[in-house]
Amino acid sequence: MADDPLDPPPQAPAAASPTPVALLRPRREAFEHGLLPIPKLIFPEGTLAQTLAQVKEKLASAAASAGGRVGAAALAEALQIPHEQAALALATLAAVLPAEDPALEAAGGGGGGGADLRDVMLFLYIQSYKRLVPRAHKDSPAVTDVWPSTSAFDGYLSALSPIQLVRSNSRRFMPSQADEEIHQLSYLQKHMANILTLLADSIEGEGDDSLVLTMETFEHLGFLVQFSEGTPLSQAATFFANSDPDMPAAPVPAAQVHDWISQNISSSLEFSTEKSTSKEVSQQVTSDIDVTMADANASNARSSTPTGSNPAYYRNTTFVEGFSKTSVVKHASDVKGHSVKVLNCHESVIYILAPLKYATLYGCSDATVVLGAIGKVVKVEHCERVHIIAASKRICIANCRECIFYLGVNHQPLIVGDNHKLQVAPFNTYYPQLGEHLAKVGVDPAINKWDQPFVLGVVDPHDSLSHPAGVSDVQAESATRLDPDLFTNFLIPSWFGAEVQEPTKCSPFPLPEIYCASQSKKLAALEDIRKTIRGLQLDDNRHKELANALHAQFKDWLYASGNIRQLYCLQGD
């Protein structure tokens, strides 16, 4: 299933500046979920094109006998990496492709069926991408007195927790969604000639005319870019528009394709930069141009999508940002698009009870986040003392501390970065529509690899914020299993559930025997207490005193645990 087409942008106000009919945008999924901190996948920029051309030669010879597809064994040999890392790379590619690849997914996304060579080359190319660093403060010397500049040892050896690290760079100076998009477009503009050369076929001719792209190959660029209106690339390009499927269009010189893409990227960059600059000038305290929920009342919060007039920043993404000491509930009807981002939420309970493709948790602390059904990837970064309950095909955990993950995942949890005291446990909740949502996004509850983490290195070559260049890498700290005696089921209030024909009445992921035994032991102890209370020979006054004492103790627990706040918030919805 291809990425859902973008919702139509909101109506622009009369005073808004004219906008292009369609803007070429980077596919954020490739950059946000498709980068792996595996050193041998990342080549120096000076030799990037030459090295990848050599890799393509090796892969092409293997792919020639496999219908143009590359398996994990061929990728491992070409890059000289372990087979399991090659399988991880292909699984990651499968998770960020704009459309389902049945052959790749049939092999569990692990490369058994192989991936299209063109997709593999695009995936390998963007491994050289470097994420945008925090913006400089206008009064740099003054800020330096408060926040020293990052050294080669900061982040790796410092005592800063993930939340402190995020806060130390200040929300105002962290890159916004618009900043990141501009950075990604600039990267693509700089490297597009090399990318097209990697994809192009050679024919007889001289100079630029010897490299051509077919319409099929051209469509593979949809891995990197897309139009804001959701128009397919081949329909937007004049040289392929309105081609007859029965009579494919003739190949087009790569130079012509490059001119067309460069022109579109330049138009998008000009428009995006102008909007971003005007926003900075008009607002002294900037909030993300994509986010409109940060100051919303939590009890009345709905899904958040951009409401500005700029289609370049319009997202198929729901944002939940900046909530503190409250509860937020999102049903399928509240969520627009195919992804959700939960950002900078603290001491809160967030329920995302909807079928989605992607989910990102960033900068949260002392919170509980429930993710109902995520068909592609969940990414959790810079979180501290958070309980994450997630049913997903895949999950990536980076730079987190003292978090517990209750997982139902079809692939091994990927753990990277500077993590401390992480724990994993089986999935522990349900709501009436959960089974329906899992089926819709393709998560198989019969497969759960919650306790089989795949651990990579501490240093992320794509990110200079927390782990700058110059620090030698070591394996990241893995996660431990949660003690079965500490495992509890998480109950989602029944009034959240809508009427469904076959409601889910328990966790669809089977519970391991050791956790089942612990649950049975607790239930037996509870039943013993009930029998003891029922067996007490008490008169009415003493019975009333006991009931009042139990109610008082329960009320004290509600206040001490903070759950009384959640109860009030949810009853107010």
UniProtKB/TrEMBL annotation:
Belongs to the TBCC family. Its main location: cytoplasm. The keyword Cytoplasm applies. Keywords: Cytoplasm, Cytoskeleton. GO terms for cellular component: spindle pole. This is TBCC domain-containing protein 1. Gene3D superfamilies: 2.160.20.70. Residues 306-443 form the C-CAP/cofactor C-like domain. InterPro entries: C-CAP_CF_C-like (IPR017901), CAP/MinC_C (IPR016098), CAP_C_sf (IPR036223), CARP_motif (IPR006599), TBCC1 (IPR039589), Tubulin-bd_cofactor_C_dom (IPR012945). It holds the Pfam family TBCC. It comes from Oryza meyeriana var. granulata. It is found in: Cytoplasm, Cytoskeleton, Microtubule organizing center, Centrosome; Cytoplasm, Cytoskeleton, Spindle pole.
